[in-house]
Amino acid sequence: STDMEAALEMIRKSGQQGVPVVEIDGEVVVGFDRERIDALLGLY
After folding, report:
1. Measured at the alpha carbon of residue 16, what is the angle toward residues 4 and 44, in degrees to the nearest 5?
2. pTM of the model
């Protein structure tokens, strides 16, 4: 990201520097975890 402030916020929330970082309803998912993302979105 070219937005350093946003990048630092994601590091603070996740405790990691991996990408992608997705936040859904306060839950942070680091990396592409399709099953976890789907579950948090209530897709199954």
Report:
1. 105
2. 0.67
